[in-house]
Amino acid sequence: MTNPIMANIGGQPVLILSEGSTRSKGREAQRNNIAAAKAVADAVRSTLGPKGMDKMLVDSLGDVVITNDGATILDEMQIEHPAAKMMVEVAKTQDKSVGDGTTTAVIIAGELLKKAGDLLDQEIHPTVITKGFRMAKEEALKTMNSIADNVSISDDKILEQIAITAMTGKSAEKASDVLAKIAVQAIKKVAEDVDGKLEINNDNIKIEKKEGDAINDTKLIEGVLVDKEVVHSRMPKKIKDAKIALIDCALEVKELEGDAKISIDSPERMQAFLDNEEKMLKDMTQKVIKCGANVVFCQKGIDDTVQHYLAKSGILAARRVKKSDMEMLAKATGGKIVSSINDLTSAELGFAGIVHEKKVAGDEMIFVEQCKLPKAVTILIRGGTAHVIDEVERAMEDAVKGIISALELGKIVAGGGSPEMAVAKELRKYAETFKGREQLAVIAFADAMEIIPRSLAENAGLDPIDKLANMRSEHEKNNRKHGLNVFTGEIEDMSVLGVIEPLKIKLQAIKSASEAAEMILRIDDIIASGTRESAGGGMPPGMGM
Q1: 59 is known as an active-site residue
Q2: Looking at residue 1, what is its pLDDT?
Q3: Where are the domains of the chain?
Q4: Which terminus of the chain has fewer CB atoms gathered within 10 Å of its CB, N or C?
């Protein structure tokens, strides 16, 4: 709707905004924003849970992504509407901070706005609604904390159940038992005790993917997989009891910088220059040999002459190794990265039981395995097609981040919609303590939380009204862990079935969904400037027109 800001001076209207600007305000602006946010939530809602469906996303170049990961779907959708972009931010925040639960967060945010829209229709002011939502959020977080159970890194079975729950509904589900064990083993390898506190860095678990073989052939490498080949054909392809040198400088003679020139006026001087260059390269090689290394990973280039001498000495070498791989090699092998060849001594070397080059799906890769106490590991994902391994990679990332989130707080909750039902029940009790209109906002928040079990039921083809009624009656009997078993349609104890989720995922979903809903509700005026190309540009698609 075009509604430029005007000032009226002596009966003469004065335009304040540029021509082509558009403005929608009041209830209309709120209605537009709520509709846009709800459309985003509806787009991912059908992907929730074990019976959730996948989305096929095709970009302008024809590249295809098949996934049911909420963050990936919203990232690929190229959303234009400003309020809808806020919903994408909810998913991104959830993905960055905990790695899973993106769909849950977006669905809750969408439902909160839908319920808020109903309250706005009843002439309740947005400030009252946001105040009620804020109080309800705090109460919801308290309830979530109170129903959580403890978990530690020694609880292998529970950690595997967290991983399986994170993978459920994705392409990786059929091999989830194998993948869950791999995820737990990987985390136990890289976990470090820092001042009595458990620290796990997700970056220390490298995920490599190669087409070919089945998903079940995915394996954990207790070390690092480097996507490089051995630089010289005469070098050994396999070395046992590897002593590994990690070098962050070029094993070649430096080029002259700028316009500097060397003047050589006789063949003898030319020969002397070449001999000197070869001597420098030989000295570099001697320093590597002298320190006792039999494997070299170099972040920069290795001269052909150095390659030749290293090959003669039976040393395996790889060049132009990525910085991230070098850091992982240091953590896995216990070696130190040296920035100058003169600093290389036996004390800087790392160790691995075996280093060998192997062909994986037509590409040569170097496996650095059997490290003593690796603080960095690699998961090599296999699958039939590129689309399958991409989705397995997303599932594995969700599983790894899910376990890390559980161990960070040391708390878990049952899944299957049971924590949301428990929160809704407590919020309805909490609403009774209010006399004003905030009570309606708290009740609306409680109703919105039930969208998770409702969506699980709908996606499984079950009657959501019946299932919600059954769940409510179980929770009234104080069975807080009872949720929906989507395979049987029964209301069962989720902790017995092994449907377990990290508390951190649930807390973050409530926080980010509630904050996004509050922010969108407080907007009552949208002013979009006209595009420069034409005065009739107006708002992005779907805005106010």
Answers
A1: no
A2: 47
A3: 1-23+528-545, 27-149+414-523, 153-222+374-409, 227-253+265-372
A4: C
Rounded to whole angstroms, the Cα distance separating 32 from 30 reads: 5
CATH code of domain 227-253+265-372:
3.50.7.10
Catalytic residue among 102, 165, 218, 378: 102
Both tokens of 326, joined, read 């070098």
Active site residue 103: yes
3-state secondary structure 427-480: HHHHHCCCCCCHHHHHHHHHHHHCHHHHHHHHHCCCCHHHHHHHHHHHHHCCCC
Q: Which of 22, 69, 168, 378 is catalytic?
A: 69
Question: pTM of the predicted model, to two decimals?
Answer: 0.79
Selected catalytic residue, list 95, 303, 390, 398: 398
Is residue 83 within 8 Å of 35, Cβ to Cβ? no
- Are 415 and 50 within 8 A, CB to CB? no
Considering the four listed CATH numbers 1.10.560.10, 1.10.10.60, 3.40.190.10, 2.120.10.10, the one that applies to the domain covering 27-149+414-523 is 1.10.560.10
pLDDT digits (tens, 9 = 90+) for 383-393: 888 888 888 88
What pLDDT does 169 receive?
72
| Tens digits of residue pLDDT in 144-168 | 999 999 988 888 899 999 988 888 7
Candidate list 103, 130, 143, 305, residue with the active-site label: 103
Q: For residue 398, indicate whether it is catalytic.
A: yes
**Is 385 assigned a catalytic role?**
no
Fold of 153-222+374-409: GROEL; domain 2 (3.30.260)
